[in-house]
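Field reference: "sequence" (input) and "structure" (output). Example, ATP phosphoribosyltransferase regulatory subunit:
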Amino acid sequence: MNWLLPEYIADALPNEAERIERLRRTLLDHFRSHGFEFVMPPMLEYIESLLTGAGHDLNLRTFKLVDQLSGRTMGVRADITPQAARIDAHLLNHRGVTRLCYCDSVLHAMPATISASREPVQIGAEVYGHAGIAADLAVIRLLAEALAKIKVPVSRIDIGHVGIFRALAEAAGLPRESEGTVLDLLQAKDIPGLIEACAEVPAPFREALQRLPQLYGGVEVLDRAAAELPAISGVTSALADLRHLVALAADLPFSLDLSDLRGYHYHNGVVFAAYCPDYPVAIALGGRYDGAGKVFGRARPATGFSMDLREVARLGPAGKPSRAILAPHASRDGKLAAHIAALREQGEIVVELLPGETACEGPVCDRKLALVGEHWIIEAIRED
């Protein structure tokens, strides 16, 4: 059974691979039209670089191995975002705003969900050097427009702010060892569990933490949060950011979820997740992660998003499969060879049969080159 692939690892066969590649080109061209420059970080790096500021979750998802040249521990990247932050901070050194995009495979030691691949094709875009809400809105709009361009409808974009929980936890004196437990309960919206976990937290912060899972829905959530949460600076500042973001983009399908804190140890501002109809999990995740480049010498403001192109390809319309033109072998026919070359220059797929080959197994050929008199013409292939 040597031919079996590991669990949660799969081949992309011709039709799926063609769809993924078509989407890759469309999305990268879309990013490029907005001024985002394409980068290609390496698959392997020293583990310290890959996990910088990324938190415990990414550490668990990263395959590790020993470099035979240096003896140091290396990792197979599980996320390209930290690599993009390294490139911005350490290699490009732009004084102003930097816009980067990327698309390549990453590898996960464990799947993110029960249906996820352990080898996602991660595509994303990042903005460095701007700390304002305008940058957060720019990447959210870029995401929404990108999904619309490839006809993947977005039903809602959940937004939240990591600063709300951080301000409450700090003001409440929540012990570091308790943070993880409370975060998990918030993510699960487990109110009974929160009541038990926060029993020793002083008022009014105990009640505020227990209210967070119920603060989700439309923009009215912001008014409810302002009325129900303590008016400490971190909370009021985060709510002001969210209010400003919603006001600037009334056309986007925003919803609020103040307990959705995925990437809490990595993000430090606005976070967002895009959802599609009839799809159980977020199709794209993003948010602000200021300071990720600090270890590389420059603590820059940063915000961006990423998604798995394999999953996006499954959600989008299949499109028409490529059709090809079948041509006879042209090794001794210069005129035929020139005609085949011209068709390929025009964007046609031409399959030239090899000696002894009588049919094409793939791609599907719906036309053929036929010699009529002295001229090669294209004819439809009739199905018998």
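The mean pLDDT is 90.
The first strand starts at residue 37 and ends at 38.
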